[in-house]
UniProtKB/TrEMBL annotation, chains A, B, C, D:
Entry protein name: (3S)-malyl-CoA thioesterase
GO MF, one example: fatty acyl-CoA hydrolase activity
The keyword Hydrolase is annotated on this UniProt entry: yes
E.C. number: 3.1.2.-
Top-rank lineage group of the source organism: Bacteria
Keyword set, alphabetical order: Hydrolase
Length: 148, 148, 148, 148
């Protein structure tokens, strides 16, 4: 039922708009069921998201801004286990007025284990209110957009 | 912008179909931004979900079944801080063929800090495949259903 | 073998020099063995330590100082389980030149589950070096000292 | 003050009795102070310990045994930061009647960030009591012993 295979993964990460972030799973990531606890997937999504923003988004934003996470949604596709690694592919799916939506796929042991979406809002450090994405930032980010 | 106030919360938890689960926030729940890390909200959702299932769902299910989480979605409404508590209201929103969808609202310091949805699938311990919710279970759970 | 019983606990917490901090255990605190993961005990110790410092130590320290943890040692006495609570008793055992040593006992389900020791160093925010505990602070803290 | 340098580290890990375990730090590992929370060091110690036992100890033990952790002690030597990695060196320091003591050094960003000791007890799965280390196991483990 999990139709996304290694070929699909290779095609996905060959796309330069997609950033891959690697995590090493920890014994402590497992729960009572002997598999990765669902909260760890949130942590892996965050690893990918922070990595993506640091490398591809923040350099194009004014210094007096920061991000808050407004929404996360994760679809669990398969169990993941320690010992092992997780590879998280992250890309930009949508640019709103002050927000950005990223999509993510997480692979572990050559299997798709989760798909996720995250919405972040650019905030003004002074007013603590949403900060409209400037035109120059938008121009720099638009080439990174990729359909789900 | 956060229109859900203490009156709405009191009305919500007065509904017997809604279960409230209490958590105490920990210093370690905070991240570099000095507020609760987003992954902690997943943990709070899980606290509420596990509590709800243990008390209201599992007693109506055959013994050879268990739950897996298929999807979580969290909308962040406000920051939450240590020291403090979190109260998570959980209720059943939808019964599928083998799945249940719960909705949740999390309050901290008298403020709505997150809304969440979780989809769980009943699994057969032997076949490790989805297990159709039996009629008797369905009859026991239907009175618990509550619209979003 | 675990000789510390409820009577000993009651006597301990009747001592005003001892601060009790309450935590609610979370499903996510358990690991693959179906009991609290050892790292959670560190988190419980930190809950107690931060609570103790916030209430009893920091008010007596100059504003330009902060604490770093220099050492923790935990002896595990019994397993702890979800659902349940943990009560952490914390007291001051020793005052050094720039450091404080606290001792802790953690109870869960009316059983001693861990004993711990933590050494914290007072630091100067400006120089980022150890800050000698001032005489006035020492005078305020000495009455709180309690032998292991 | 932190006298253990890269040369010492290289010499340490050149010793075949020492096992190095790698972890990738996560954004979520940081706390309010912008550095790795102390509980994460416990998780890193566990990563190293579990890795060591899985590879070097468990293969020499009867199948009806398991380990429990009886004690951990961690001395914090320097702050560690995200993004980055942690390398944990683990070796066997002492064999007791039913227990093993390991020592660990954790490096991050080419700096010694922590030293740790962990005591594990071999348990009998049936009786849930300490299981004396068999002579054959002892003979296999003794060559791995290394002074602190």
């Amino acid at each position: 039922m999990n139709m996304f295979g290694m070929d699909d993964w290779q095609a996905l990460i060959a796309d330069e708009r997609v950033l891959v972030t690697r995590d090493i799973l920890r014994y402590n990531d497992m729960d009572d069921n002997g598999h990765l606890n669902n909260s760890v997937f949130t942590v892996l999504c965050e690893s990918g998201r922070v990595d993506y923003f640091r490398k591809r988004v923040t350099p194009h934003l004014p210094g007096n801004t920061f991000f808050v996470i407004a929404r996360i949604a994760i679809d669990f596709k398969a169990e993941a286990f320690y010992p092992g690694e997780a590879l998280t592919a992250t890309w930009l799916e949508h640019l709103g007025r002050s927000s950005l939506r990223v999509r993510q796929k997480i692979m572990s042991a050559d299997k798709l284990v989760a798909e996720a979406e995250g919405v972040c809002v650019v905030m003004d450090q002074t007013t603590r209110k949403p900060f409209p994405i400037p035109d120059a930032t938008r121009a720099a980010l638009e080439p990174l957009l990729r359909e789900g």
